[in-house]
Amino acid sequence: MKRFPNQIIRLIIPFVIIIAGLLIAKKFLVPASFGKLGHFRADALGEAMSKPIHYVGQQACADCHDEIVKKKAASYHKGVACEVCHGPGSAHVDSPTENKPPAPRDRGFCPVCHSYNPSRPTGFPQIVTVTHNPGKACISCHNAHDPVPPHAPEQCGACHGDIARTKMASPHVDVPCTVCHETPTEHRMNPRMYVPTIPANREFCGKCHAKDAQSAKEIPRIDMGTHGERYVCWECHYPHLPQVYNGAAK
Ligand code: HEC
Ligand code: HEC
Ligand code: HEC
Ligand code: HEC
Ligand code: HEC
Ligand code: HEC
Ligand code: HEC
Ligand code: HEC
0.70 exceeded by the pTM? Predict the structure, then answer.
C-alpha cells in the first residue's frame, strides 16, 4: 500500500486539531438557543422584550396633546420627534401629572442642531449662536412646535450671495434671476423641496442674443447657426458673468 508523504501527514495533524477544537467549542460555548429561529440566539428576543420601555413614540402623545401633534406635523419640525426634545415619555404617559417631562426652555438646547457647523448640509437652517440675538431664549421668538422663520428672505442673494454679487458686476446685471430661473415662491422657504428651473437649451439664450431676436437693440448678437453650435452656451459663457475676453470684447 502506498504511504502518504510525510509533508501531507504534517499538514493533516493541525487540521484535525483545529476541527476537533471547533467541535468542542461548539458543544460548550455556543448558547443552547442559537440557530433555533435563524442565525441568532432565540432567547435574545425574550430578553429584549422584557426590558422596560422608555420611548413610546409620537403616536402616544396624540391621545392627549392632539393640538400640538397636529401643529408640529405641518411645521418645519415635522421630522423632529417629541421625545427628542422632551426625553423618553413612557413614565409620563403612564401617569401624566406625577411624571412631567422636562421642556427644553433654555437657550443652550436648540443650538445642538442649529449652531453653525460647516459639515451640515447646505440649506439647513443654522445660526451663529454668539451673534444671533444673544442673551434671549430661542423660544421667546420661535415657537418650538412650529418654528416659522419670522420672515422669508425677499431676495435670492440672501442665500445665493456669491452668485448675486458676481452678477451685480457683470453684463447681465439688468437680467433678473427669475428671467432665467422660474422660481416657485416656496423655494425661499423650502429650497430643497421646490427647486427653480435652469435654462434647458441654446434657444433660451437665443431669445435675447440671436441675430433676429425681438430684444433690445443694444444686446450683442450672434449667429445661432454657426456660433459654438455644438454646445450649450454655458459651456463657454458663465451665465452669471458672461464676459468675452478677445478682440470682440467690449
Ligand atoms: C394620558 C394623557 C397624556 C399623554 C398620552 C401624554 N401627556 Fe403630556 N401631559 C398630560 C397632562 C395631563 C399634562 C399636564 C400635567 C400638569 O400640568 O400637571 C401634560 C404635560 C406635558 C408637558 C408639559 C410639562 C411642563 O413642564 O409644562 C409636556 C412637555 C408633555 N406633557 C409632553 C408629552 C409628550 C412628549 C408625550 C408623548 C410621549 C405626552 N406628553 C403624552 C397628559 C398626557
Ligand atoms: C424642538 C423641540 C421640541 C419638540 C420636537 C417638541 N417640543 Fe414640546 N416643547 C418644547 C419647548 C421648548 C417647550 C416650552 C415652550 C414654552 O414654555 O413656551 C415645549 C412645551 C411643550 C408642552 C407644554 C406647553 C404647551 O405648549 O402646552 C407640551 C404639552 C409639549 N411641549 C408637548 C409636545 C409634544 C406632544 C410634542 C410632539 C408632537 C412636542 N412637544 C415636540 C420643545 C419641543
Ligand atoms: C434634533 C434636531 C433639532 C432640534 C433639537 C431643534 N431643531 Fe429646529 N429644525 C430642525 C430641522 C430638521 C428643521 C427643518 C430644516 C429644513 O426644513 O430643512 C428645523 C427648522 C427650524 C427652523 C426653521 C428655520 C428656517 O428658516 O427654515 C427654526 C426657526 C428652528 N428650527 C428653531 C428651533 C428652535 C427654537 C429649537 C429649540 C426649541 C429647535 N429648532 C430645535 C431640527 C432641530
Ligand atoms: C429676538 C428674537 C430671536 C431670538 C431670541 C432668536 N431668534 Fe432665531 N431668528 C429671529 C429672526 C428675526 C430670524 C429671521 C431673520 C434672520 O435670519 O436673522 C431668525 C432666524 C432663525 C433661524 C433661521 C436661519 C436661516 O438661515 O434660515 C434659525 C435656525 C434660528 N433663528 C434659530 C434660533 C435659535 C436656535 C435661537 C436660540 C439660540 C434663536 N433663533 C433665537 C429671531 C430670533
Ligand atoms: C432661503 C434660502 C434661499 C433663497 C432665498 C433662494 N434660494 Fe435658491 N437654493 C437654495 C438652496 C439651499 C439650494 C440648493 C438646493 C439643493 O442643492 O438641493 C438652492 C438652489 C437653487 C438653484 C439650483 C437648482 C438646481 O437644480 O441645482 C437655483 C437655480 C436657485 N436656487 C435659484 C434661486 C433664485 C432665482 C432665487 C430668488 C428668486 C433663490 N434661488 C432664492 C436656497 C435659497
Ligand atoms: C442669463 C440667465 C441667468 C441669470 C440672469 C441667472 N442665472 Fe443662474 N444659471 C443660469 C444657467 C444657464 C445655469 C446653469 C449653469 C450650468 O449648469 O453650468 C445657472 C445655474 C444656477 C445655479 C446652480 C449652479 C450654480 O452655479 O450654483 C444657481 C444656484 C443659480 N443659477 C442661481 C442664480 C441666481 C441667484 C441668480 C440671480 C442673482 C441667477 N442664477 C441668475 C442662468 C442664469
Ligand atoms: C433677457 C435677455 C437676455 C437673456 C435671456 C440672456 N442675455 Fe446675455 N446679455 C443680455 C444683456 C442685456 C447683455 C448686456 C448687453 C450690454 O450691456 O452690452 C448681455 C450680454 C451677454 C454677453 C456679452 C458679454 C460681453 O462681454 O459683451 C454674453 C456672452 C451673454 N450675454 C451670454 C448669455 C448667455 C450664455 C445666455 C443664456 C444663459 C444669455 N446671455 C441670456 C441679455 C440677455
Ligand atoms: C464653444 C464656445 C462657445 C459657445 C458654445 C458659445 N459661445 Fe458665445 N462666444 C464665444 C467666444 C470665444 C466669443 C468671443 C469671440 C467671438 O466674438 O466670436 C463669444 C462671444 C459671444 C457674444 C458676444 C458677441 C459680441 O459681438 O460681443 C455673445 C452675445 C455670445 N457669445 C453669446 C452666446 C450664446 C447666446 C451662446 C449659445 C447660443 C453662445 N454664445 C455659445 C464662445 C462660445
Answer: no
- Burial of 10 by CB count in 10 Å (0-12 exposed, 13-18 middle, 19+ buried)? exposed
CA 85 to ligand 3: nearest atom: 5
Q: Where are the alpha helices (DSSP H) in the chain?
A: 6-29, 43-49, 58-62, 66-73, 82-86, 90-94, 111-114, 161-168, 177-180, 202-209
Q: Please write the tens of the pLDDT for every residue from 36-65.
A: 999 999 999 999 999 988 999 999 999 999
- Please name the residues in contact with 232: beta carbons below 8 A apart, sequence gap of 6 or more: 201, 202
Does residue 74 contact residue 67 with C-beta atoms inside 8 Å? no
Report residue 171 as a C-alpha cell: 453684463
Q: How many residues does the chain have?
A: 250
Give tens-digit pLDDT for 197-207. 999 999 999 99
Atom of ligand 3 nearest to the CA of 109: 37
Ligand 8 pocket residues where CB is under 6 Å? 202, 205-206, 209, 220, 222, 224, 227-228, 231, 233, 235-237, 244, 246, 248
